[in-house]
Amino acid sequence: MSYRLKAITREEHLAFVGTRPSVSHMQIPAWGDVKPDWRAQSLGWFDGDGRLVGAGLVLLRPLPKLKRYLAYLPEGPVIDWAAADLEQWLEPMLAHLKGQGAFSVKMGPPVVARRWSAEAVKAAIADPAARRLRDVEATAHEPRAFDIADRLRRMGWQQTEPGGEDGFAAGQPRYVFQVSYAGRTLEEVQRDFNQQWRRNIKKADKSGVKVVEGGYEELTAFYDLYVETAERDRFIPRPLSYFQRMWNVLRAEDENRMRLYLAHHEGDILAAATMLTVGAHVWYSYGASTSRKREVQPNNAIQWRMMCDAHELGASVYDFRGITDTLEEDNHLLGLLRFKSGTGGEAVEYLGEWDFPLNKVLHKALDLYMCRR
Question: Any idea what DSSP says for residue 294?
Fold first, then answer.
């Protein structure tokens, strides 16, 4: 089957997203408004009967002084990745984006390749011979993912290698941690938590930690903690305006799209976090905390409240987002992997991000620029 691809309206795009059980928050129309430095466009795939059967949010970033663009579909597009005619889905997209002036296309197929249970992750961390999660035997493999990867390579797509010593790619994380809610009560979900997690939730409650939802005005309190967290965990913080824009545009699309939570204790705000929801998929998006009063366990308290609310919203999965691929003790991100795996979920590897150079000279120049950053 051949597919016709064209630009679609935000309304058409949002209606299509509403028919899917899980779509990345980076593949909804409002996400384009979160990224004002990019020009956003909603694309739609139509079958022979004129039905909208696929959609994608593409972000176009201009090259300085040139009317040429990097086209980026983060965690997308939303198409039938298992289709035997995958070429018929992707070739019209490349042709359309080339016509828009794109010199290179980057996408992140929402296709799971492997999964590791919490027990397997725990054993890997304890094994001195295990250096990276990717080299540890997975609990489950998704055979179709490797077939899709082979087909993409034959079509000329190039896989982006997991970047940096911590295993995070330059774009979106290839490795995430998720807790499945499908057909499970909250009691069953908590039963899979390790002893430390259950103990910390009880300790936070007994210590008087109160987790509340915040509004736009509380974003400044979140941001103060976020800047402290950035300094402690050695990353460059986004500006406050980024989170204010996120709040405004995402909640304008759906009031449950973004929520803010704050953990209070005796007049102090000790932790804060944002939660995003699209359909039955809920993400822990950004987290922040102070180094003070850690003994009252505000981070466990805030996550448990968010997990409870996600369950109430009808989530099928609670997604902790990115985890490190490295298992070495001296890596500062290993503690975050231990924290997330304590919930008894599973580490998940996606296919990662893929590039298609439409202009090899400009694509190579971009590669060199990114390597020097």
Answer: G
- CATH number, position 89: 3.40.630.30
Domain boundaries, position 33: 4-108+353-372
pLDDT of residue 301: 98
**155 burial via Cβ count (<10 Å: 0-12, 13-18, 19+):** middle
The helices-and-strands tally (H runs, E runs) of the chain is: 12, 16
Q: What is the average pLDDT across 158-165?
A: 68
Q: What is the DSSP letter of 157?
A: -
Block residue for tokens 């911590």:
166
Q: What is the largest CA-CA distance in the chain?
A: 63
User: So what's the pLDDT on residue 164?
Assistant: 44
Let me know: does 43 contact 6? Beta carbons within 8 Å. Answer: yes
Q: What is the pLDDT of residues 3-26, one digit of tens each?
A: 999 999 999 999 999 999 899 999
The β-bridge partners of 233 are none
Confidence of residue 161 (pLDDT cuts 50, 70, 90): confident
The total of other beta-carbon atoms located within 10 Å of residue 293's CB is 17
Count Cβ atoms within 10 A of the Cβ of residue 170 and give its class: 0-12 exposed, 13-18 middle, 19 or more buried.
middle
Number of domains into which the chain is organized = 2
Residues 341 and 196: their CA atoms lie apart, in Å, by 11
